[in-house]
What we know:
Layout: E1 7-11, E2 14-19, H1 24-30, E3 38-40, E4 48-49, H2 80-102, H3 111-131, H4 137-146, H5 150-162, H6 170-181, H7 186-198, H8 206-217, H9 222-234, H10 242-255, H11 263-277, H12 280-302
Helix pairs in contact: 2-3, 4-5, 5-6, 6-7, 7-8, 8-9, 9-10, 9-11, 10-11, 10-12
Amino acid sequence: MSIPNGVKVARNGVEMGVYMPEAIPVLLSSGTLHLSDHYWMPGMSGWLLLSQFPVPQGSPPPLASPAPQPLTPEVPKKGAFGRIAWLVGGFLIPYLFAWRIIFDRAYGFSVGTKVFYALWMSWLFYSTFFLLGSENQYESRLSLAEQGDSEAQLEVAISYQEGKGTEKDFAAAQKWFLKSAEQGNASAAFWVGMGHTLGSGAERDPVLAVTWYKKAAYGGHAFAQQVLANQYTTGNGVEKDLAEAYALYNLAIAMGANDGFGTVHFASKNLADLEKEMPPADIEKGKRRIGELKTLIRDRKRK
C-alpha cells in the first residue's frame, strides 16, 4: 500500500521503505533509523540526510543509539582457563599434528605450503569442535518462546525484526512481541506500540499504539514513558494532557539512566521545553501525578 506524501528512506544507497512523516522522529528516537540515513519526499529535488529532517515540535528528538540487540549465533564466552584450553586444543595441537606427523613425511611441499595447510587444519579443527558445536541461540530461544517464556518471546521477536539468526519477518516479530506483551513484558508492549505507529507487521493505528505505550510506560519502561509523554504533548492518538506528559518525562528521567536509548538526555530537553508552555497549576498537577504513577508502576512490578 502506497503512502501519500510518504518519506522514502535509504541506507548506503539501498531504499529501506516509505514511512509516514510523523513516524520519522519515533524511528530516529528508537534507533531504527539513523541520522546518517538519507530521505526523500515528493517535491524535493534530491536526497538529504535524516539529520536535516524537519522534526515537528513535541516529537521525540533524533537519536542514533541502537535498538535492543537481537540474538545471533555465537561462540559462548570463555574465561581465562577456557581461552588457554582453546589455544592449546584448538590451535597448537592441530598445528603440531599437521606439521610434524603429516607434512614432514610428505614430499614436494614448500615451507609456505606446509604453514598454509597447518593453519587450515587448525581452523578446520576449531570450526568442527567449537563453532559447529556451539548452540544456535535463536533456535534455543524459539523453543523456550514456544513454551511460553516471555523474555524468550521478546528476543525471538527482535531476531525476526532485525533478521538476525533468521529471515527478517515483521509480521512474525509483531506476533512474538504481542505474545510477550500479553504476559506483561513492558519492553514487548513498547514494540507492539511501535508496530502500530509504523504499520510494521501490524495495522497503523495511533490510538492502539498509545494503548500499548501506556502498558509499557506504566510497566516501568523508561523510553516508552518518553514516547508516551510526546503523545500527550501533541495529542497524537490520545487527548492532549500536559500534566500527564510532565509526570511521564520526570519518570523517564528518573528511570532511564543507561538504558541505551539516551532517554534521560532527551526527556530532560523535552521537559524543559514543556515547562515553558505549562501554567503553574498544570505543573503542580503533574508533580502530584508523579507520585501516583510511581505507586502504579511499583504495584504492577510486584504482580
